[in-house]
Each structure stands twice: as C-alpha cells, then as structure tokens.
Queue: 4 jobs
Job 1
Amino acid sequence: MSGSNMSVPVPSNARKSEREVFKRLENILKSRKPYCSGTMTVNKDQLIIFYGRDENSAGRICLDDASPEQLERLVRACDPATFGVNQESVLDEQYRKSKKLDPLQFSSLFDVASLNRLLHEEFIPDRKQGVAIHYVRHKLNVYEPGSFFKPHVDTPRGGNMFGSLVIVFPTAHEGGSLVLRDAGKEWTIDSAHDIASNPDLCVGFIAFYGDVEHEVLPITSGYRVTMTYNLYYDRTSPTIVYVPTSVDDRYDRLKATFEEMLDQPPLLPNGGYLAFALQRKYGMDQKTDLRDLMEDLKGSDDLLLSVCEDMSLRASLRVLYRSPDRASHDVLAPKIYQLEGAHWEDDFCLAEFLESQEYHVNDENRVLRTLRLARDKIRDSTGKPADIWVKWVVKDDERRDTSPIRLRQSTEMNQH
Ligand SMILES: O=C(O)CCC(=O)C(=O)O
Ligand SMILES: [Fe+2]
C-alpha cells in the first residue's frame, strides 16, 4: 500500500486560484530529497575492522591503507551476499554479486554516532527532531571488481525502522556508485570520488528512507568496502534538540501557502475535507492503528503534519475507498477494512458496504456465503483491482456528517 504514485485529478470545479495554491503546496511537499550523503573525517583507528567467521579464524584490517593482499584475505573470510525476497534470503549472482559478513562476524571502531547531528539537521523529519537515532549494524559488504547490487528496496526490519545508512570506507576503487531512485527522480552518489577529492582521511556516507530504491553499480577496479546500518527511532533514550544550522525554509513556505489557501473564502463552500496523498510509503495491514502510523511519518508527510498542528488544524490519517463505478461518494475511513471475501451488492453505497464488512467479520455464515467478489469489484480508475491509499485529511467543517466515514465532498491534490 502506498500513496506516492496515485494520480488524483484536481476537481474540475476547482477555481484557478485554488489550483495555483494546490500546485504550490505540492511543489513544496515534493521538494525534499529522500536521502542525505557526504563525507565525514575520521581518525585511522575508526577504520580498523576485526573479523572472523568462527572461533578458528581471526583477522584484522585497517581500511585506510590496506594492501590488495589484505583485502583479498578479507574477501576470503566472507560469504556470498544474499538478498531478501518475501522474507527469505536468496542467493542470485545475476542480481547481487558481492561478499558480506554478518554483524556477529566483525567488529568495528567506527563511531557512527558522530553522524547524529548531521542526520538530524538534514534528514530526520521535523517532528522527530528530538528523538535519538538507534543505529543497528547490519552487514559488512565487500565488492571486488565486477561486483554489483541491482536495484532493490531494503527489507524493513521492525515497525519503527525508518531508513538505511551506508558507510563507504576509503579503500581505493572505481565504479560502485550508489544510485537512488524515488518518485521518478534519480541521484548518483560516487563516494569513491568524493573520498578521493577530500584531502583529509574520511569515509563516505549515504542515509536514505527505507522505501527508496537503490542500486550499486559495478565496481570497475579496486575493492569497495561498506558497512550498513538499519536506522530506528529510539523512543527510550533522552531527547536532544539540535538547532539546525542549515537553512530549510520549506516549513515556513508551506505554512504561508496554507494560510493563504485558508484565507481565500470560500475554500470549500459546502464543507468537506482537504486530502493529501502521503508522499512516502509505509507498511501496514488491517492491524495497523493509523494513529500509531502518524507518529512514524517521514519527510514531507511529517512536515505537513507539523504545519497542521502548528495551525491547530485537525489532521488525521485516513484510507480512501472509492467505489468501483464511482457511483457513490468516496469514503475516508479511519481504518483498513478486511475486503478479502467480501460481497458487493449492486445497490450498496460505499459507506454502507464498508460498514457491512465490519458487521460481517464475526458472522461466519455471512462470510462463507459472501466469499469471492469484493476484490474483483473494488477497482481503481484504470480498471485494475483497487489498492488502498492513505490520505491526509486536514480541513473539515462544522456541518460535516456525523458518520465518521461518510464523505460529502473531497478536494484532493493532483500527485503529478
Ligand atoms: O553497499 C552498499 O552501498 C549498499 C548495500 C545495500 O544496498 C544493502 O546491503 O542492502
Ligand atoms: Fe540495500
């Protein structure tokens, strides 16, 4: 389930001034990069790795001035790297050709916490500014000439994992750029080049959100050694507030545009909601409490929520359900419904249909009788079986229906 690729037309009755404001809001929300990268100076000690697969093998390497022989010895101590498909580890050298050590097979003196400040300033969502980052070491990867890792998205490990961090050690190599792709854009990070052009001893780093596709291009010479971390929010540790030094005026611009929009009466003359598709993807299923998910928003989604909170606008996460034939009103539901095996009566309006699903869940006979149909019946605008999209709802009106899931009028932003 995701919200990033859905195209929702701006309602045809939106006025020109409204369209312009929507477009500006959209541009601000889409302008944040889903990663941050650079180089960080280190002392030589931080580049020492102790490694060994079992009790009978032990090695040590300093990844500053390691010789090809030392690097070859490290390669021999590693296993071929697998990758995750449907929760399983698969070995396929057409897809990923590299070597790796698991976290219990190596130790490193690298001080990852030195990146805290930078990640908070450049990468951590605004509402998470005070929350500490918990870095969990994932793998040591070793790429020889000819090694690569085709485009993939990292397997999320645990609910509050929000991203990945790659540390690139300063072993001389060429090729091996990390290419990131998100929402139709692409960025290439050539850490080997960045490290070589820095006069100080340094490592390269790239932190990116968990839903960003990435790829390691083939290594053409030398050895590329990386250490990966899974990034979590650490809610148990004390919160630290950094004062960002970089200037990011998106918050102010978003707030000003919002104010302008709300000051333009009548925005929604008959009442209604203003809904925004989430920019980032989140894992969820029927058990997901959308209120918990609100705590884990990333990037622009989090920025939007902070602006809403700041302006005392009631905001919540909702799932948008749209009937197959668009004959009834859309429903912004406060939860994810179990549609597997549900049955759509032709004269149902969508809200009634969803309510009936709730009712039938514990009614075994009805469920048996109504097996099949629903997945086929709920379709998106292109005719494919519908996916579930999570939307923002930020503006409503006193005259709103009392039913929590009925929508009288929705105004949505175009995603493209
Ligand atoms: O080594 C890298 O640069 C990236 C490795 C990676 O994408 C992974 O381990 O999932
Ligand atoms: Fe990856």
Job 2
Amino acid sequence: MAPAVSGNNAIPGKASFKGILAYAKPHRKTFFGVFGCTLIAISADLLQPYLVKIAIDDNLMIGRNDYGMLLIICGIYLLLSLLSFLFSYLQSNLIQFAGQSIVARIRKDLFAHITRLSPSFFDRFSSGSLVTHVSSDTETINQFFTQVCLSLMRDGMTLIFIIVLMFQLDPVLAGYSMLLLPVIALIAVSFRSYMRKTYQASRSRLSRLIAFVAENLAGMNLIQAFHQEKEQQLEFDERNRFYYKANLREIRTSVLFNRSFDLLGNLSIAFLTWIGGRAVFHHTIEFGVLYAFITYIRQFFQPINAITQQWNTLQSASVSMERIWNLFRTEPDVKEAARPLSMPESPVQGQIDYNRVVFGYNAEEPVLKGLELHIAPGEMIGIVGTTGAGKSSLISLLCRFYDVQQGSVRIDGTDIRDIPLEQLQRTVGLVQQEPYLYSGSILDNVRLFDESISREDVISACRFVGADDLVRRLPAGYETMLSDKGSGLSAGERQLISFARIVVFQPAILILDEATANLDSRTEQTVQQALQAVSKGRTTLVIAHRLSTVMGADRIIVMSAGMIVEEGTHAQLLRMRGYYEQLYRHSQGSAEMGIG
Ligand SMILES: Nc1ncnc2c1ncn2[C@@H]1O[C@H](COP(=O)(O)OP(=O)(O)OP(=O)(O)O)[C@@H](O)[C@H]1O
C-alpha cells in the first residue's frame, strides 16, 4: 500500500497551522461575532446562581418575605435564561457557518491542487489515502474550528468568570477550591500522552482500512477473475480487527478519563459541603453563598473537562493539518516553464525529436538509455517490443507526464519543457488502451464537457470514426448517460468514443497505446478504419502488441530494454531477419493457433 502523505507521527508544524489558519482570516468578523455571543451567553448563565444567592440571603434567610423582590428576581432569572438560549444558538450557528465555509474552501483548493499534480505523485500515493485527505482530514479541520476553537473560547471564559465570581463571593472557600486545580491538571496531563497514542493508532489503522477498501473496489473485476475473494477477505478481516481493537482502546481511555473527572467533581462537592457547611454553622458565611459555591463548583469541572476533551480533536486536527499542508506543499514534478515559449509554427507541423533521452522512474535505474528518435510531420510510427521495453515510457515523455533526466524531447524544434502545458495538451492527443470515460452523457464524453463544442460537431466526429450508428442505437442516443467509466459500452465502443474526441479536439500529434489489443477481429476492423481516418494528416505513434495494427505504418521501431534495436517498414524489417522477424513469426504462429 502506498504511504500516507505524511506519517501519523507528524509533529504539528507551525507552518501547517499558519497555512490553514490563513483560511480563517476572511472570517475574522464572524469569529468576533462568536466571541460577543459567547460573552453574553456565559454572563447570563453564570449570573443565575448569583441571583438565587441574593434571593436566599437578602430575602428568604432574613425573613423579609418581600414577594415583589422575589418576583423581580425570578423574572430576571427567566430573562437571563432566554438571553443565554438566544446567544448560544447564534454562537453555534455563526461558528458552524465559519467552519463549514473554511473547510469547503480548503476542499476546493485541495482538489484543484491534486488535479495539477504529476502522474509520478499518483504512482507514489494510493487513491485511498487521498480520499481520506479530501474527506475525513478536512472534516477534522472543521471540528477544529467548530469544537476546539469554540470550546477554548466558551469554556475558557466560563472558567475565568467562575473563578472571579468565587473569589468575589468568598476568598477562603475559593482558595480551597483552587487546591483542586493542580490535581485536575495532573490527571489531564497524565492521560494526555496516552490518549494521543491511542488516537493515532486508531486513525492510522482506519486510513489503512479505507485505502484497502478503495483499492479493492477499483480492482474488483481482477479479484473476482483470479478468485482472490477469500485472500482479500482475510486481509480485510485482519485490518478490520486491528482497527476495531485500536478503536476500543481509544474509547476505553477516553471513558476512563471522563469518569475520573466526574469522580473528582463529586469528591470536591463533598469536600466543599463539609468545609462550607461548617462555616455556615459558625455563621462565617451565609447559606446563599454556600449554595452559589456548590453550583459554581459543579460548573467549574464542566469547562475543564470540555477543554481537555478537545485534546483528542486538537491532536487529530494537528495531524490532519500537517497532512493537508504537506499535500498543498507537494509541487508537481512537471512544471510550467518560467518563461514558456510558443511553438514557432502555427499550425503545429508535428515533427518530433527525441534527442539522446535518458529517463527512469527513479534516477538510479534508467528505463530509456540515450534514446534517439526523429519523426517527420504526418509520419505514422508503429512501436513494438517486449513487455517492459519502454514503449509506454516513450509516449509518457511526449505527453509530459514525466520529464527526461537527460537529453530532450522536441516538437517542431521546441523543447516540450518550454511549451505552455495547455498548448502541449492541445497538441498531443492520447488514446489509451482503456480510454477513460466520465460519468456523464456521450455528448459530454466526446467534447469533454467543453460547451463551446457544438452537438453537431460531436455528431459529425462520431460519424467520421463510424460511431454514430452505435450511439444512435443507445436508449437516449447522444444523451445516454454513462456511469462507472462507461461500463455499459464494449471496449471497442469506448475506443471509438475516444477516437471521436480526437476528431473533435484535432491534436496535431496522435498517440495510441495498444488501442486495439483487447478487441475481437470484427470490432478491430472498425477501429482500424477509424484509426486510418483519424491519423490522416497528423503525426501518429501507435504502440501495438498485434503487429497487424502497425504493419501499414510508415516506419516501425522495435524496442528492447530501453533502446531502439531495429527500425524500418514492415517489409524492410522482415528482410533484416532480426528481432522483428522473430516477433512476426511468433505472432503468425499465435494467429494460426487462434491466439491474440
Ligand atoms: N510508474 C512507474 N513507476 C516505476 N516504474 C515503472 C513505471 N511504469 C513503468 N515502469 C517500469 O519501466 C520499465 C518500462 O516500462 P514501460 O511501461 O515503458 O514498458 P512497455 O514497453 O510499455 O511495457 P508493456 O508493453 O508491458 O506496457 C519497466 O521495467 C516498468 O516496470
């Protein structure tokens, strides 16, 4: 499995925190609003026990029996409750609005950034871990704003207010209560590191589980074809069990922590009732003060507990921030030139030069070793060779999925690294063995959602490649919706749709990667005809395992171990009696035996 973008043990860096916080800046006013609402809601909440204390000490206990005053106190109490309700509601809505907006923006930028990354990045990172970053990591950041920030603000303020009110009521009792602070801090700190570990273990196991499911779903047909269901099930069970155990451990720790806090809270109430009760007996404090104190001490634990409970979220948020920030910092390997040059000829002629190209997926192991290849405008080149010879690598370089390590690839004399990426993408059209079809209509799949291309252009392109009849036979014609990479169409039909794309977008250079390898001979014929039609007037490179696909090419190059070992027309190569002739004889044998 590919590793996560950054390890789970990543130390939350300042840079990542600052970077993510920059997303919160436009919402400064909202955060001020939240602060204001919190201040009003807390004040309203905390004044209530104080009111009861006034009612007890200044009215009930001294036998004043002032009904009017009692009624006013009850009225104010009710009003404070309403205020607290209203401003708490406002505060929650405001913080949710800010959090959701921030995260929606991060998700948008993240997705845009991922789509700009080079194929080498996707070689390294599994789609499963990327799904986790875009979905759950951003959600954790939302929790950071809506839970951690809110709790720090609300519970932090509550704590300060309670301490002030306690000292104002009775400094001695308040002093006793403060004795509890170090005990609370000790418990919080001792649990902290353990909780962090359990949390991280559970997160990394969950991300491994998600990645496994995503990879399995993507390759389900292969798993079923090779009867790997049992093996995969065993592997899944193992990962599932690991996650289950880690999750249970995390929950157990968290419950133990919370219950210890409850226990401590109850012990302190007992302690205060003892000390305060004695003081009431000795008339050193009033009964209302003791009542207010007991109420405050209950409320005293709540914010501390709430803040420490946020520790988990803070931990996960810092890990998520670090991972997302690392992703943002990942630069595409293939970059736009600092000063891009446009190709001199317009329209593009389609001359291609590979000049002493050295390339490898890692620098130590070159796949192409000083390759030299020159292709004239409009020429059709067939590329053949054994598996792993470097055929796909050759065309990946022309599409600039990767950059050469030495030498250069040029189109019409311009190094492709100097050509603006968008112009290069328009110049080089690629039809892969398994053309990618999007969820959407046939119409949109041909014009790649480019509304500036008319329906008529799409229809005439389909007619040109011989796909019009097949599209019209579909239930909704050009509006037929394809789902799941066009699973309703045959391989040949998907191929024809991708040819129609080429006709619509008119690239000067066309690349076909084993485009007809999967087709039956009748469909192959249709596709061959389409290929002939599409390749007319443009430089075409065709990689084929079936020699029949490239026999008519202007030139065939034969590759082996990253080098061109033979080249010429079909007839010339046969006359050489070399590598190509062997391949040809082998393919003839296979055809006679009904293979390939
Ligand atoms: N993304 C990649 N990361 C690392 N190595 C790769 C990658 N793609 C290909 N290779 C390696 O580079 C070498 C050349 O591969 P390439 O796909 O270019 O050969 P090919 O001739 O197209 O083979 P095939 O006919 O099997 O598709 C092989 O050894 C292959 O294992």
Job 3
Amino acid sequence: MGFKMTFRWFGPKDDNIPLEYIRQIPGIYGVVTAIFDIPVGEVWPEDRIFELKKMVEDAGLKFEVIESVNVHEDIKLGLPSRDRYIENYKQTIRNLAKAGVKVICYNFMPVFDWLRTDLAKKLPDGSEVMEYNHEMLKNLTPDELVKSMEKGSQGFSLPGWESYRLKQLQSLFEMYKDIDENKLLQNLIYFLENIIPVCEQCDVKMAIHPDDPPWSLFGLPRVVTNKENIEKFLKAVDSPYNGLTLCTGSLGANRENNIPELIKYFGKMGRIHFMHVRNIRFTGERSFYETSHLSTDGSFDMFEIMKAIYDIGFEGYLRPDHGRMIWGEKGRPGYGLYDRALGIAYLNGLWEAIDKMSRNEKKW
Ligand SMILES: O=C(O)[C@@H](O)[C@@H](O)[C@H](O)[C@H](O)CO
Ligand SMILES: [Fe+2]
C-alpha cells in the first residue's frame, strides 16, 4: 500500500531517541539515517555502513534511505579538485548499494544548509519551534548567524552544519564571489552527469533536497528553489535516478511554490523518491515558524498535500519533517520524538481516509 513511512535517526551516539522507540510508532517502515563522523568528501567504508545497517535491522526497521551524503564544497564551487571528490562520492554510492540502500538524499546549498533565526521560539501552548524571520536575518552577519545557530542547538550537532566548513566562512564567501546561480546550476549538472550512470548501474536513486529557505541569502546563490530551476537540472540529466526529495516546508516557504501542484508535476514525471512532510505558519512575506503537522495550526493544507501524494500513486519513502519540542522533551531542535510521532499518526489518518474514500469504500 502506497508509500513507506520513515523517521529520521541520527545514529547511536548522537540521538536521544532509541531505535526501539521508533519501532513502536504506528505504521513505521524504516529509519532515514547517515554516518555523521566521516568528513564530507571521503568515502563511506563498507564496514561502517554494514555496522549501521545491522543496528537498524536488529531493531526491526529497514535501512533503505540515507540522509544525507553531503556534497563537498569543491564540487559546488566547480574547482578542479572536484573530480577526486566525485570519484569518492561514486564509491560511497556503490558501497551503500551493496547494503541495500535505495535512495540518497543530498543538497546543493553553498556554505550553509538550512537556516533559522530562532531554534526554540515559545508558542502560547508552551511548545517550542524553529523560526525564520527574514528581517532579522537580513541584519545578521554570517558569523552572527552561525553563533546563534550553535547557541540554540542544545548541545546537539545540527544536520548539515559541519563545523569544518563554518570555520572557514570568510574564505568560502570569497570563493563564491564569482559563482552566480547559473554557474552553480552548471556545477550541479556536472556532478549529476558524473554520478547518475553509477546510480543507474547499482539501482540507487538520488533525491536532492530543496534549499531551505528557497532563496538566495548573504549573496550566496541557491538553485533548488522553484519549479523552473528544478526542472532545468532534472531535464539536463534525464534519468529517473536523478530525482527529488520534495520537502513541503522548505519549498513551500516561498508562497509562489504551490506544493500540491509541484507534487503532481514532478510526481507524474516519476522524479519524487522521498517526501518530507511538515507544516509552517507564515508571519510575513518571507517569514514563518514551524508548527505541528495539523493543517489548522499552520498555513498549508495537509489534506491537499497528502491527496496529491496519493494521486500520483507514490510508492517512495516519506517522513514527517521537523516537529515541535513538547512534553518536556530535550532533544535536537526539530527532531524530538513526540511531535514527529504525532505527525506520523496524523499523516497516516489522512492517508487512510483518502485511500478508503478514493476506492469508494466510503462516500465522500
Ligand atoms: O530536515 C531537513 O530536511 C533539513 O533540516 C536538512 O538538514 C536536510 O536534511 C538536508 O538539507 C538534506 O541534505
Ligand atoms: Fe526537509
């Protein structure tokens, strides 16, 4: 029946949530995880991958999606040294394929991964959520932003925020001076042209994550931002293995991106391999905070989103994305157990209703 429900897990050393708990979430299929201590650009060794796989499978969960195998900055910058890192990336793909991995999520954002101005905004009900305030961000320097993210992280590492990169902020910004959107897009296409043949050989699908938020910041280019841009690199390397992680909260932060429509469009092309489903509430043209998954808590219609996923006959992987911090839980911002599990229960409910109604077992 349809999609496979997954849950992001940060590994045995760096996640407060045991696999045994994840196993008890209704309808769960597997976890989405990664090896976090291998420097970006290096090959993930087979034995480390199999060790992780065993841990996950021993807990009764599937190990089929990796989030993320990060892309070395030299590849994004298009430096001559990129070829070495691309070779390494290919080897990592082959090694993951041997362990039965089917989908690799990655992103192509220069310097920073996702960005927020507050990692623990308190809502009236006492829950804490992440917030992005565009006006506030515009007044921060990149250094100040990094400091505030690190301060808000509650001692947990933040996904995509590798410290090595952030230590070289100035020189990185210098290197990106001549890279505009088009150049970055060409560098992405070069990367895909090289790795997709390997993916085809070993049956591993690439699923690029949209930029979060989906617009340029601090003068750095961003390319995974809207339908037009996404279509460019999907068509440039026209293979079903060159696909998307469609993240509702990231892409949807730009009000011009109509999420149900994008799901239908790229879904019909057969290019969505992984769905991240979450809700946000707009507080300004480009400002928002994250909410529970419930439609009435945020600005998105989650029924329409799940219906679009249903209508494309989605058989890929899906996970709740960030959730609130509730019930006194202490965890990595956005990645507590409770609210993401509530999100799963809710998405499962929407799905069951849509499925039964659509198959005419019940009357709309
Ligand atoms: O939860 C998310 O989707 C984001 O927080 C990213 O960290 C995302 O995992 C990466 O950008 C994907 O490469
Ligand atoms: Fe996401």
Job 4
Amino acid sequence: MKKHILEVSGIQKSFNNKLLLSDIYLKLETGQIIGLFGRNGSGKSTLLKIIFGIVPALDKSIFVNGISKNNASTLLNEIGYLHQNQFIPNHFSVLQTILLSVDKQKAHFVCEDDFLKSLLNQKIRDLSFGELRYLQVKLILSNQSKFVLLDEPFSGLSPKMIEIVMLLIKENSQEKGIIVTDHHYRNVIEIATDLRILNNGKLQVINEKAELMQKGYLINSAIF
Ligand SMILES: Nc1ncnc2c1ncn2[C@@H]1O[C@H](COP(=O)(O)OP(=O)(O)OP(=O)(O)O)[C@@H](O)[C@H]1O
C-alpha cells in the first residue's frame, strides 16, 4: 500500500465577524479514518468545504505528499467530497451516473453492487433518500482520489445500510485517508482510527470517549 499524506494548516474562518474556525491544522494519511465531531453549527461542514476548496480561507496551506496544492483545481483528483446535499442531476439514470462518475473498471464493480444492481435503470429523481445517499457514498469511495471527506454519510440510511456503509468506508481506508463527520457517533467511533472534535473554533484530539462528554458533545448519560 502506497501511503499518501494530506496536510492542511492555517485555516481561519469567520462569518459575519464571528470567528468559526481558528488556526486549524489537520493531517490525514492513507489508512486513517478520522471521526470528526462537534456540536451543531461548530463548523464541521465548513471545515470540510475549506479543505476541498469550495469555501475560501485566505491563509490556508494545503500539501499532498509534501507538494503544495494551494490552487484548488489541482486538488480535484486528490480529494473526494460527499456533500450533505444531492450532487447528481435528477434526470440521470443510476447507470449513467455510475458511468460518468468512475472509470470503466470501477463502474463494472459498482454496477454489481448488491443494493444498486436492481436500481440501474431508475432515474435519480425516483430514488428514495437512502438509496440516493448510498449511491453517492459508493461513488465517492470508488473514485481515484487519495483522500475522501464524508459529510454525514449515514444520514437517512437504515441500520442495515449503515452497517454496509461502515464496511465500505473501512475497506476503502486501506487505500485512502478518510474523514467522516456524522452525528451517528457510535458508528463513527466504531470505524474511526482517530477522533477529533471542533470545540470553540479549535480542532482538538479526542483520546478517550469520555472527552466527548467533557467537551459538551455528548450528555453525561450517553451509553457507548
Ligand atoms: N455562507 C455562510 N454565511 C454565513 N454563515 C454561515 C455560512 N456557512 C455556514 N455558516 C454558519 O457557520 C456555522 C457553522 O456551519 P456548519 O454547517 O459548518 O456547521 P456544522 O458543524 O457542520 O453543523 P451541523 O452539525 O448542524 O451540520 C453555522 O452557524 C452556520 O450558520
């Protein structure tokens, strides 16, 4: 396995003169699954968008394997990003979407997916919320990128599909570095190799699950 390293530093972000993210540094390596937590509105999605390059942050530095990637267009082949929202046009069929999203070899593999194979001729607009979410996660994880940022991959999925997506994330982490943020915290904890929390604008390392309570993300009676 070839190891790749993504390093991002100097991330500051304010909205309406309110500081949201302050001097964030993050390192992600192949094989790592970083679980990212934080209260609603703490800036998790904004941080992922800044790393991916669709939200500007003036002092950001980003390096892949030690090479500067400060020009966002050079990042497109390096990082895959799952939005919270739908990114596929409604009039596409599932098959068209797969063929346009991944290379030929991977497309064959995605079309053979147990869950997707009966949906290939269906239009995107006719998929259920969970079916669409699963398709998007599968495509993002199947593309060539070295790193993947997943914003709420478990959202709207049934328990069985969550298990399938957890497995998919774990399998793909053999070849990719992955960040997962999702309020299904137990599932995130189960697959993550490392945990971080955004707390008062700072990105902090979580070593013990109990710190998620101390930092106000979980209530004290939360059971793991
Ligand atoms: N373009 C914007 N203009 C102004 N404020 C914004 C903008 N984008 C995000 N915000 C604010 O920044 C804060 C962080 O938003 P963000 O979506 O990153 O939070 P989050 O941690 O992902 O939250 P959640 O867990 O609820 O999804 C919120 O208060 C949000 O209203």
